[in-house]
Amino acid sequence: MSANAQKLQKTYQSLCDYVQQTAMLSGVEELLQWDECTKMPPAAGPYRAEQVALVAGILHKRHTDSRLGEWLAELEDSPLAADPHSEFGTNIRLLARDYEKKTKLPQKLVEELSRTSVLAQQTWAEARKNDDFASFAPLLEKTFELKRQEAAALGFNATPYDPLLDDYEPGESTANVASVLGALREEIVPLVQEIIGSNHQPDRSVLEQDYEITQQEKLGRHVAEQIGYDFNAGRLDTTVHPFCCTPGAGDVRICTRYSIDNFENALFSTIHEVGHALYEQGLVREQHGLPTGTSVSLGIHESQSRMWENQVAFSRGFWKHFFPVTQEHFPTVLKNSSPEAFYAALNCVRPSLIRVDADEVTYNLHIFIRFEIEQALLEERLSIADLPEAWNAKYQEYLGLTPPSNAEGVMQDVHWGAGLVGYFPTYALGNLYAAQFYAKAEQDLGDLQAAFAEGEFGGLLGWLREHIHQPGQRYSPAELVERVTGEPLSHEPLLSQLRSKYGELYRL
């Protein structure tokens, strides 16, 4: 090896060591946020906000350290970066991209965003419980003002929404996402009307009973373990709003919530978060903190959670295997039911107010609403004061329902309080990616429903590990979809799956 090559290798190693140390500190921040949502006493809130702001400030200094710029300048045009999809090329290319974005953000703004996020989430939780939008509104107003400042610092041409969307779905534009989701909306709305108008409606009475929470917890843990979640490298806790976080390599935590009269919400929220966790547990652990050991995007992440939730857990094959186990946990409630009846009840399509309770057909309508509203808020075409009224009008337009309260309306999600503006469209993109990936996996692996009926989920998980998880960020979301499936992203696989499944259930 030449002296120059040795020097480049040393620079690259210095870069990676520094970035992975920064990832350790990011894990500390995630741990503080996990604790805030699960174990922290309420009185600790203001101090926790200052702790998180302090860590965020330290992280920003590390993300923008001039040494990073020097190392990247030396490496970007070097032979190590010649192949953009190699381990070297991927890490150099994407760390340079991240450094460019981070150096545009003022330290004070980063700290204030973190501080406001913690305070807003705490206020949201209390305001939602009390149906008190007025107490949440000032912090929500401040959040959107800070996000406008962030967008301005990053720079944009068409809309301030673009740079915020790019944080979650790199390379995407608001215009393109609007076009893709618009094509989906044109097909989904009439399908929903066909289903609602069918004379053959599933009987949901088996779900409209009380399911003892201790047994829900046991069942959720059993299902999570059976489909592949490694509890040796993770844990399951309760919180107000379900989520998944990764404080470090070998530490992937999921949180869910339980309600005695809403069996589906707890179980499917758990499975959804397990889908996220399986992705995190499938990344190359030694590369943790580097682009090659990091998920591609939020949309691809959502494709994993939505696939395990919809294509797997809402399937007939899944319940052929898990119904007897569920019946053992709830013998009284399910004594007169059957796998087929339970499957049909779970797949009942009906417009609903709550996004996380929505069936897979109407779910995207909830996302369309949020996508449109948050653009209007960010661009100041809609004020925070008028937000509840605009929200209710959209729900009436898209779902034919008007929320009876703000708790069941505009305050149902934590995302805006957490500062996650630009996040919502990734849920709908995730549904599209999931359907396309699942179709390809079944083409490669054979009848997946037959495998699920036998309790075999390892084949699908292994396929996902190879094709989606282990490449890390070597490919952009668009590149990954085309590389894995041979086709660009399309709404057709999702529509095909929905029409096939619900056409049979509703005899369309």
From TrEMBL:
<keyword id="KW-0479">Metal-binding</keyword>
<dbReference type="Pfam" id="PF02074">
    <property type="entry name" value="Peptidase_M32"/>
</dbReference>
<dbReference type="GO" id="GO:0004181">
    <property type="term" value="F:metallocarboxypeptidase activity"/>
</dbReference>
<keyword id="KW-0645">Protease</keyword>
<feature type="active site" description="Proton donor/acceptor">
    <location>
        <position position="273"/>
    </location>
</feature>
<comment type="similarity">
    <text>Belongs to the peptidase M32 family.</text>
</comment>
<feature type="binding site">
    <location>
        <position position="302"/>
    </location>
    <ligand>
        <name>Zn(2+)</name>
    </ligand>
</feature>
<keyword id="KW-0482">Metalloprotease</keyword>
<keyword id="KW-0862">Zinc</keyword>
<keyword id="KW-0378">Hydrolase</keyword>
<feature type="binding site">
    <location>
        <position position="272"/>
    </location>
    <ligand>
        <name>Zn(2+)</name>
    </ligand>
</feature>
<keyword id="KW-0121">Carboxypeptidase</keyword>
<feature type="binding site">
    <location>
        <position position="276"/>
    </location>
    <ligand>
        <name>Zn(2+)</name>
    </ligand>
</feature>
<dbReference type="InterPro" id="IPR001333">
    <property type="entry name" value="Peptidase_M32_Taq"/>
</dbReference>
<comment type="function">
    <text>Broad specificity carboxypetidase that releases amino acids sequentially from the C-terminus, including neutral, aromatic, polar and basic residues.</text>
</comment>
<protein>
    <recommendedName>
        <fullName>Metal-dependent carboxypeptidase</fullName>
        <ecNumber>3.4.17.19</ecNumber>
    </recommendedName>
</protein>
<dbReference type="GO" id="GO:0006508">
    <property type="term" value="P:proteolysis"/>
</dbReference>
<dbReference type="GO" id="GO:0046872">
    <property type="term" value="F:metal ion binding"/>
</dbReference>
